Amino acid sequence: MRTTVLDRAGVAAGASWGNAGMLNPTLTVPLAEPGTLRAGLQGVLDPSSSITVPPQADMRLWRFLLQFARHSRRSRWRRSMQIFNELNRRSLDAYAHLTESGVTAPVKHRPLISAATSPAGLAPLVREIEEVVAVGGSARYEQIGSDELHAMEPALSDRVEAGLLLHDQGYIDPPDYIAALADAVRARGARIVEDFDVSRVRDGGEAGVVLLSPAGHELHADAAVIATGAWLNTLARPYGVRQVVQAGRGYSFTVRPDPIPRHPVHLPSQHLACNPLHDRFRITGTMELRDPDSPAEPRRIEAMVAAARPMFATVDWEARREEWVGSRPCTPDGLPLVGPTTSPRVHITGGHGMWGMVLGPVTGRLSADLITGVPVPAWASALNPLR
Predict the structure, then answer these.
(1) Is 1 exposed, middle or buried (0-12, 13-18, 19+ CB in 10 A)?
(2) 139 contacts 294 by C-beta, under 8 angstroms
(3) Would the pLDDT of 39 be above 70?
(4) What are the pLDDT digits (tens) for 288-316?
(5) pLDDT of amino acid 34
(6) Dmax over Cα atoms in the chain, in whole Å?
(7) Are 268 and 113 in contact (CB under 8 A)?
């Protein structure tokens, strides 16, 4: 069996390029929860909010928001978190399997530093971690004071006085890692076809499926996996997928502190993730519920700079580079979509929200098992795309 990957642009051209690259299973939780809902309502009125919603939302977005609100009850969050715990405990092992299979880019393992101006700024994060543990998750963390914090990361400003050290986490350099993943895929005999934008998936019954491009190109296959991120609904809806996949656009840019931090840094009060990528430091944040093809909003980057500036002492914020916007594919209940559709030849893998890098390898394994008939755990039924 030969695998062909069709990419609408090129390897690492989308969210797999500009994301934070932080593999934090302990913090990987369902987006649908009361705090996110409150922040979204605030974001309708406040363009500097970490979550923004355009005031003239279309009907599709309103449908997503109504379903999201229904799933944002704490009881539903706990049920979804149990599924996330199953995924999270397998996530770093899935990366280890990719390394064993020939992916040469490293997965680095250092504790994540969550930093705040006071212990009170860490309290909501600690409560969330304790809730994760209460429904079967695991976490190893310790709170550290100002002296230890600044000894670990001199780039942090004097305003940062409290830290939480979260163990058993990882991080990658997304562009380098995805390029190495593509090399490993090719080395194992698969083919990657770039600049092939699939406009339709046609089920031919026992003859297989046909994938068509707007230019009239065709590719024939035994089965297809639709993994088109925030654009998933267009191709998936004819096959019974009614879950709205909404673009939650994130922004990032890079700077060069002196010295460059040695650890990933999480700023929970500012809703920012900051990751060392070799010779630069990537700042990532925001959740902008807009059309994935809309142009970037410069004020989102400006709001991120304003939030991060007080937390670091050695950054020239005007020298930032690689400003980027990309779309995270969000589902109303926060759970990914993994499995077959109304056609046994058309499968879905998507809807990971903010957690595509953390959960991509483990859900990819699930998808491969479902296609080839390998038994999967009973909890995987919660990811059914037809739910």
Answers:
(1) exposed
(2) no
(3) no
(4) 999 999 999 999 999 999 999 999 998 99
(5) 75
(6) 66
(7) no
The C-alpha atoms of residue 38 and residue 50 are separated, in whole angstroms, by: 11
Helices 123-134, 74-100: axis angle to 10 degrees equals 80
- DSSP of 212-278: E-TTS-EEEES-EEE--GGGHHHHHGGGT--S--EEEEEEEEEE--SSPPSS-EEETTTTEEEEEET
d(CA 319, CA 305): 11
Integer Cα distance of 93 and 100 in angstroms: 11
Express each pLDDT in 71-109 by its tens digit: 999 999 999 999 999 999 999 999 999 999 999 999 999
pLDDT tens-digit series, residues 44-55: 556 667 788 887
Burial of 253 (0-12, 13-18, 19+ CB in 10 A): buried
Average pLDDT over residues 182-206: 96
**Torsion sign over Cα 370, 376, 380, 381:** positive
**Residue 47 pLDDT:** 62
Give percent of the chain with pLDDT exceeding 70: 96
Domains of the chain: 4-383 (3.30.9.10)
Burial of 59 (0-12, 13-18, 19+ CB in 10 A): exposed
Q: How far apart are CA 95 and CA 91, in angstroms?
A: 7
Tokens in use for 144? 């550290």
- SS3 state at 373: coil
Scanning the chain, the segments in alpha helix (DSSP H) are 15-18, 34-43, 59-71, 74-100, 123-134, 146-152, 174-187, 232-236, 298-308, 356-372
Provide CB contacts within 8 A for 274, sequence distance 6+: 20, 261, 264, 265, 266, 267, 281, 282, 283, 284, 308
Q: What are phi and psi of 318, to 5 degrees?
A: -80, -15
**In DSSP terms, which residues pair with 330 in a beta bridge?**
246
